[in-house]
Prephenate dehydrogenase
Amino acid sequence: MTDATDARSRAVRTSGTVRIVGAGLLGSSIGHALTALGVDVVLADASPAQLRLAVDYGAGRLPAETDAPGLVVVAVPPDVTADVIARELAAYPDAVVTDVASVKLEPLQELRSRGVDLTRYIGSHPMAGRERGGAISARADIFLGRPWVICRDEETSARDLTVVEGLALDLGATPIEMTPVEHDRSVALVSHVPQLVASLLAGRFVGAQEGALRLAGQGVRDTTRIAASAPELWVQILGANAQPVVDVLDALADDLRSVSSALRAPDRPGSRRAVADTIRRGNEGVERLPGKHGQNRRFETVVVIVDDTPGQLGRLFGDLGELEVNVEDFRLEHSPGALFGLGEISVVPSAATVATEGLMSRGWKIASLND
Protein backbone atom coordinates (compact mmCIF):
# COMPACT_ATOMS: atom_id res chain seq x y z
CA MET A 1 0.00 0.00 0.00
CA THR A 2 1.35 3.42 -0.94
CA ASP A 3 1.58 6.30 1.51
CA ALA A 4 -1.18 8.14 -0.34
CA THR A 5 -3.49 5.09 -0.25
CA ASP A 6 -2.75 4.56 3.44
CA ALA A 7 -3.49 8.22 4.16
CA ARG A 8 -6.80 8.08 2.30
CA SER A 9 -7.85 4.96 4.24
CA ARG A 10 -7.77 6.85 7.57
CA ALA A 11 -10.78 8.70 8.94
CA VAL A 12 -10.50 12.31 7.76
CA ARG A 13 -12.10 15.10 9.77
CA THR A 14 -11.59 17.83 7.16
CA SER A 15 -14.23 17.78 4.43
CA GLY A 16 -15.29 19.88 1.47
CA THR A 17 -12.97 22.40 -0.11
CA VAL A 18 -10.13 24.03 1.82
CA ARG A 19 -8.76 27.31 0.51
CA ILE A 20 -5.14 28.09 1.46
CA VAL A 21 -4.00 31.68 0.98
CA GLY A 22 -0.21 31.77 0.84
CA ALA A 23 1.69 29.06 -1.02
CA GLY A 24 4.92 29.29 0.96
CA LEU A 25 6.37 26.68 3.30
CA LEU A 26 3.47 26.33 5.74
CA GLY A 27 0.67 26.88 3.24
CA SER A 28 2.08 24.42 0.73
CA SER A 29 2.88 21.89 3.46
CA ILE A 30 -0.73 22.01 4.67
CA GLY A 31 -1.82 21.62 1.05
CA HIS A 32 0.37 18.56 0.51
CA ALA A 33 -0.89 16.91 3.70
CA LEU A 34 -4.57 17.55 2.94
CA THR A 35 -4.23 16.53 -0.71
CA ALA A 36 -2.73 13.22 0.42
CA LEU A 37 -5.87 12.72 2.51
CA GLY A 38 -8.10 13.26 -0.52
CA VAL A 39 -9.22 16.76 0.44
CA ASP A 40 -9.94 19.29 -2.32
CA VAL A 41 -7.32 22.03 -1.79
CA VAL A 42 -7.43 25.40 -3.53
CA LEU A 43 -4.28 27.55 -3.43
CA ALA A 44 -3.99 31.31 -3.73
CA ASP A 45 -0.91 33.52 -3.55
CA ALA A 46 0.00 37.09 -4.35
CA SER A 47 2.90 35.77 -6.42
CA PRO A 48 1.75 33.98 -9.60
CA ALA A 49 5.14 32.24 -9.87
CA GLN A 50 4.97 30.95 -6.31
CA LEU A 51 1.40 29.78 -6.86
CA ARG A 52 2.24 27.90 -10.05
CA LEU A 53 5.23 26.27 -8.39
CA ALA A 54 3.13 25.05 -5.46
CA VAL A 55 0.50 23.67 -7.84
CA ASP A 56 3.15 21.97 -9.96
CA TYR A 57 4.51 20.27 -6.82
CA GLY A 58 1.04 18.96 -5.98
CA ALA A 59 0.07 21.11 -3.00
CA GLY A 60 -3.36 21.90 -4.47
CA ARG A 61 -5.13 23.35 -7.50
CA LEU A 62 -5.72 26.80 -8.93
CA PRO A 63 -8.82 28.73 -7.79
CA ALA A 64 -12.11 28.62 -9.68
CA GLU A 65 -15.02 31.07 -9.59
CA THR A 66 -17.34 28.36 -8.25
CA ASP A 67 -15.18 27.56 -5.20
CA ALA A 68 -17.13 27.51 -1.93
CA PRO A 69 -14.63 26.56 0.76
CA GLY A 70 -15.78 25.54 4.20
CA LEU A 71 -12.37 26.36 5.66
CA VAL A 72 -9.89 29.08 4.72
CA VAL A 73 -6.30 28.88 5.98
CA VAL A 74 -4.37 32.15 5.83
CA ALA A 75 -0.63 31.47 5.60
CA VAL A 76 0.88 34.83 4.73
CA PRO A 77 3.59 37.01 6.35
CA PRO A 78 2.63 38.72 9.64
CA ASP A 79 2.51 42.22 8.18
CA VAL A 80 -0.40 41.34 5.88
CA THR A 81 -2.12 38.66 7.98
CA ALA A 82 -4.89 40.95 9.28
CA ASP A 83 -5.59 42.32 5.79
CA VAL A 84 -5.97 38.86 4.28
CA ILE A 85 -8.11 37.54 7.14
CA ALA A 86 -10.52 40.46 6.75
CA ARG A 87 -10.68 39.94 2.99
CA GLU A 88 -11.31 36.20 3.24
CA LEU A 89 -14.03 36.61 5.90
CA ALA A 90 -15.84 39.00 3.57
CA ALA A 91 -15.34 36.91 0.45
CA TYR A 92 -16.50 33.60 1.95
CA PRO A 93 -19.32 34.27 4.44
CA ASP A 94 -19.95 30.56 5.09
CA ALA A 95 -16.33 29.59 5.77
CA VAL A 96 -14.39 29.25 8.98
CA VAL A 97 -11.18 31.28 8.66
CA THR A 98 -7.98 30.49 10.53
CA ASP A 99 -4.42 31.71 10.14
CA VAL A 100 -1.08 30.12 10.92
CA ALA A 101 0.92 33.26 11.68
CA SER A 102 3.54 32.94 14.41
CA VAL A 103 2.15 35.98 16.27
CA LYS A 104 -1.47 35.98 17.42
CA LEU A 105 -2.21 39.14 19.42
CA GLU A 106 -1.27 41.88 16.94
CA PRO A 107 -3.44 40.63 14.02
CA LEU A 108 -6.36 40.10 16.40
CA GLN A 109 -6.09 43.62 17.81
CA GLU A 110 -5.81 45.09 14.31
CA LEU A 111 -8.95 43.25 13.17
CA ARG A 112 -10.89 44.35 16.23
CA SER A 113 -9.84 47.95 15.71
CA ARG A 114 -11.32 47.79 12.21
CA GLY A 115 -14.61 46.46 13.55
CA VAL A 116 -14.35 43.18 11.61
CA ASP A 117 -16.89 40.51 12.65
CA LEU A 118 -14.62 37.78 14.03
CA THR A 119 -17.32 35.23 14.83
CA ARG A 120 -15.97 32.82 12.18
CA TYR A 121 -12.29 33.57 12.78
CA ILE A 122 -10.06 31.36 14.94
CA GLY A 123 -6.37 32.14 15.18
CA SER A 124 -4.00 29.18 15.22
CA HIS A 125 -0.31 28.42 14.91
CA PRO A 126 1.40 25.11 14.14
CA MET A 127 4.77 24.95 15.89
CA ALA A 128 6.48 23.56 12.85
CA GLY A 129 8.75 24.82 10.11
CA ARG A 130 12.12 24.58 8.43
CA GLU A 131 15.05 26.93 7.96
CA ARG A 132 14.30 27.05 4.23
CA GLY A 133 11.06 28.57 3.03
CA GLY A 134 8.94 28.52 -0.11
CA ALA A 135 6.83 25.95 -1.89
CA ILE A 136 9.90 24.01 -2.97
CA SER A 137 10.74 23.23 0.68
CA ALA A 138 7.21 22.18 1.68
CA ARG A 139 6.65 18.77 3.25
CA ALA A 140 3.43 17.05 4.27
CA ASP A 141 4.99 15.55 7.40
CA ILE A 142 6.37 18.65 9.14
CA PHE A 143 3.33 18.85 11.43
CA LEU A 144 3.52 15.26 12.71
CA GLY A 145 3.68 15.22 16.49
CA ARG A 146 4.04 18.99 16.70
CA PRO A 147 1.88 21.28 18.89
CA TRP A 148 -0.77 23.30 17.05
CA VAL A 149 -1.94 26.26 19.15
CA ILE A 150 -5.59 27.27 18.77
CA CYS A 151 -6.74 30.63 20.15
CA ARG A 152 -10.49 30.45 20.71
CA ASP A 153 -12.58 33.12 22.46
CA GLU A 154 -16.09 33.51 23.85
CA GLU A 155 -17.46 34.08 20.32
CA THR A 156 -16.08 30.80 18.97
CA SER A 157 -18.78 28.22 18.28
CA ALA A 158 -18.18 24.57 19.11
CA ARG A 159 -18.72 23.69 15.46
CA ASP A 160 -16.10 26.12 14.18
CA LEU A 161 -13.63 25.03 16.84
CA THR A 162 -14.09 21.43 15.72
CA VAL A 163 -13.20 22.43 12.15
CA VAL A 164 -9.84 23.93 13.13
CA GLU A 165 -9.05 21.17 15.63
CA GLY A 166 -9.90 18.64 12.92
CA LEU A 167 -7.42 20.27 10.57
CA ALA A 168 -4.65 20.01 13.16
CA LEU A 169 -5.49 16.39 13.95
CA ASP A 170 -5.69 15.41 10.27
CA LEU A 171 -2.17 16.78 9.80
CA GLY A 172 -0.88 14.71 12.73
CA ALA A 173 -0.45 17.67 15.09
CA THR A 174 -1.53 18.02 18.72
CA PRO A 175 -4.07 20.83 19.32
CA ILE A 176 -3.35 23.05 22.34
CA GLU A 177 -5.65 25.87 23.43
CA MET A 178 -4.08 29.18 24.51
CA THR A 179 -5.08 32.81 24.62
CA PRO A 180 -3.27 35.10 22.16
CA VAL A 181 -1.34 36.68 25.05
CA GLU A 182 -0.26 33.28 26.39
CA HIS A 183 0.76 32.19 22.91
CA ASP A 184 2.88 35.25 22.15
CA ARG A 185 4.68 35.10 25.49
CA SER A 186 5.32 31.39 25.02
CA VAL A 187 6.73 31.63 21.50
CA ALA A 188 8.91 34.56 22.56
CA LEU A 189 10.62 32.19 25.01
CA VAL A 190 10.80 28.98 22.99
CA SER A 191 11.05 30.26 19.41
CA HIS A 192 11.70 33.96 18.88
CA VAL A 193 14.51 34.54 21.38
CA PRO A 194 16.24 31.24 20.46
CA GLN A 195 16.28 32.51 16.86
CA LEU A 196 18.02 35.72 17.95
CA VAL A 197 20.48 33.88 20.19
CA ALA A 198 21.38 31.48 17.38
CA SER A 199 21.81 34.36 14.94
CA LEU A 200 23.95 36.39 17.35
CA LEU A 201 26.20 33.43 18.08
CA ALA A 202 26.54 32.49 14.40
CA GLY A 203 27.31 36.12 13.64
CA ARG A 204 30.49 35.74 15.72
CA PHE A 205 31.73 33.28 13.07
CA VAL A 206 31.84 35.91 10.32
CA GLY A 207 35.17 37.36 11.44
CA ALA A 208 36.53 34.16 12.96
CA GLN A 209 39.69 32.49 11.68
CA GLU A 210 39.21 29.50 9.42
CA GLY A 211 41.20 27.33 11.79
CA ALA A 212 38.77 28.00 14.62
CA LEU A 213 35.74 27.10 12.51
CA ARG A 214 37.32 23.80 11.51
CA LEU A 215 37.07 22.76 15.15
CA ALA A 216 33.29 23.11 15.13
CA GLY A 217 31.46 20.00 16.29
CA GLN A 218 27.84 18.96 16.53
CA GLY A 219 27.21 21.10 19.61
CA VAL A 220 27.80 24.41 17.86
CA ARG A 221 25.94 23.18 14.78
CA ASP A 222 22.91 22.30 16.92
CA THR A 223 23.09 25.66 18.69
CA THR A 224 23.21 27.68 15.46
CA ARG A 225 21.10 25.54 13.11
CA ILE A 226 18.20 27.98 12.96
CA ALA A 227 20.53 30.89 12.21
CA ALA A 228 20.02 29.98 8.54
CA SER A 229 16.46 31.37 8.67
CA ALA A 230 15.21 34.13 6.35
CA PRO A 231 15.89 37.65 7.72
CA GLU A 232 12.91 39.21 5.90
CA LEU A 233 10.37 36.99 7.67
CA TRP A 234 11.99 37.30 11.08
CA VAL A 235 12.03 41.09 10.96
CA GLN A 236 8.24 40.91 10.70
CA ILE A 237 7.81 38.23 13.37
CA LEU A 238 10.04 39.95 15.92
CA GLY A 239 8.51 43.35 15.23
CA ALA A 240 5.00 41.97 15.76
CA ASN A 241 5.95 40.31 19.05
CA ALA A 242 8.47 42.89 20.25
CA GLN A 243 7.54 43.37 23.91
CA PRO A 244 7.42 39.68 24.94
CA VAL A 245 10.74 39.17 23.13
CA VAL A 246 12.28 42.19 24.86
CA ASP A 247 11.16 40.86 28.26
CA VAL A 248 13.02 37.58 27.69
CA LEU A 249 16.04 39.31 26.16
CA ASP A 250 16.37 41.67 29.14
CA ALA A 251 16.32 38.73 31.58
CA LEU A 252 18.83 36.87 29.43
CA ALA A 253 21.08 39.95 29.30
CA ASP A 254 21.06 40.07 33.11
CA ASP A 255 22.13 36.42 33.21
CA LEU A 256 24.93 37.08 30.71
CA ARG A 257 26.20 40.04 32.72
CA SER A 258 26.24 37.88 35.85
CA VAL A 259 28.31 35.17 34.17
CA SER A 260 30.65 37.72 32.57
CA SER A 261 31.25 39.34 35.95
CA ALA A 262 32.08 35.98 37.50
CA LEU A 263 34.51 35.05 34.72
CA ARG A 264 36.32 38.39 34.87
CA ALA A 265 37.51 37.36 38.33
CA PRO A 266 37.22 33.55 38.41
CA ASP A 267 39.23 33.29 41.66
CA ARG A 268 37.00 35.73 43.51
CA PRO A 269 34.85 34.04 46.20
CA GLY A 270 31.54 32.96 44.71
CA SER A 271 32.61 33.22 41.06
CA ARG A 272 32.93 29.51 40.43
CA ARG A 273 29.63 28.88 42.15
CA ALA A 274 27.96 31.47 39.92
CA VAL A 275 29.25 29.67 36.82
CA ALA A 276 28.30 26.25 38.19
CA ASP A 277 24.80 27.49 39.07
CA THR A 278 24.40 28.77 35.53
CA ILE A 279 25.25 25.38 34.04
CA ARG A 280 23.13 23.56 36.61
CA ARG A 281 20.11 25.75 35.93
CA GLY A 282 20.54 24.97 32.25
CA ASN A 283 20.49 21.26 33.12
CA GLU A 284 17.23 21.76 34.99
CA GLY A 285 15.72 23.69 32.12
CA VAL A 286 16.63 21.05 29.54
CA GLU A 287 15.10 18.34 31.72
CA ARG A 288 11.79 20.21 31.62
CA LEU A 289 11.59 20.09 27.84
CA PRO A 290 9.09 17.45 26.71
CA GLY A 291 10.65 14.61 24.75
CA LYS A 292 9.14 11.88 22.68
CA HIS A 293 5.31 11.85 22.83
CA GLY A 294 5.48 14.89 25.12
CA GLN A 295 7.01 12.87 27.95
CA ASN A 296 9.67 14.16 30.32
CA ARG A 297 11.85 11.06 30.25
CA ARG A 298 15.58 10.58 30.57
CA PHE A 299 17.33 8.39 28.04
CA GLU A 300 20.78 6.89 27.88
CA THR A 301 22.97 7.37 24.83
CA VAL A 302 24.89 4.66 23.03
CA VAL A 303 27.52 6.17 20.73
CA VAL A 304 28.41 3.95 17.75
CA ILE A 305 31.24 4.51 15.26
CA VAL A 306 29.66 4.36 11.78
CA ASP A 307 31.90 4.07 8.72
CA ASP A 308 31.14 6.59 5.98
CA THR A 309 30.22 3.96 3.40
CA PRO A 310 26.90 3.07 1.73
CA GLY A 311 24.52 0.85 3.70
CA GLN A 312 26.01 1.36 7.16
CA LEU A 313 23.06 3.20 8.69
CA GLY A 314 20.65 0.64 7.25
CA ARG A 315 22.69 -2.18 8.80
CA LEU A 316 22.84 -0.37 12.14
CA PHE A 317 19.08 0.10 12.36
CA GLY A 318 18.55 -3.44 11.13
CA ASP A 319 20.72 -4.80 13.92
CA LEU A 320 18.89 -2.67 16.50
CA GLY A 321 15.60 -4.04 15.20
CA GLU A 322 16.82 -7.61 15.57
CA LEU A 323 17.87 -6.77 19.12
CA GLU A 324 14.34 -5.40 19.72
CA VAL A 325 15.81 -2.06 20.82
CA ASN A 326 13.53 0.92 20.20
CA VAL A 327 15.41 4.02 19.07
CA GLU A 328 13.98 7.02 20.94
CA ASP A 329 16.19 9.50 19.10
CA PHE A 330 19.16 9.44 16.75
CA ARG A 331 21.83 11.92 15.71
CA LEU A 332 24.79 11.44 13.39
CA GLU A 333 27.84 13.64 13.91
CA HIS A 334 30.61 14.00 11.33
CA SER A 335 34.03 15.46 12.03
CA PRO A 336 35.75 17.38 9.20
CA GLY A 337 38.06 15.08 7.26
CA ALA A 338 37.01 11.92 9.14
CA LEU A 339 35.89 8.85 7.21
CA PHE A 340 33.39 7.89 9.88
CA GLY A 341 30.60 9.41 11.93
CA LEU A 342 29.41 9.05 15.50
CA GLY A 343 25.87 7.74 15.72
CA GLU A 344 24.28 8.84 19.00
CA ILE A 345 21.42 6.45 19.76
CA SER A 346 19.04 7.42 22.57
CA VAL A 347 17.38 4.46 24.30
CA VAL A 348 15.49 3.87 27.53
CA PRO A 349 17.91 2.98 30.37
CA SER A 350 16.74 -0.64 30.48
CA ALA A 351 17.76 -1.12 26.82
CA ALA A 352 21.23 0.45 27.05
CA THR A 353 23.10 -2.73 27.99
CA VAL A 354 21.21 -4.83 25.46
CA ALA A 355 22.02 -2.32 22.71
CA THR A 356 25.69 -1.99 23.68
CA GLU A 357 26.46 -5.68 24.07
CA GLY A 358 24.31 -6.70 21.11
CA LEU A 359 25.91 -4.20 18.74
CA MET A 360 29.43 -5.10 19.90
CA SER A 361 28.70 -8.77 19.24
CA ARG A 362 27.73 -7.81 15.70
CA GLY A 363 31.03 -6.04 15.09
CA TRP A 364 30.11 -2.44 15.87
CA LYS A 365 32.57 -0.24 17.75
CA ILE A 366 31.03 1.54 20.72
CA ALA A 367 32.57 4.93 21.48
CA SER A 368 30.90 5.53 24.85
CA LEU A 369 27.82 5.00 26.95
CA ASN A 370 26.61 7.80 29.18
CA ASP A 371 23.46 8.95 30.91
About this structure: The longest strand covers residues 300-307.
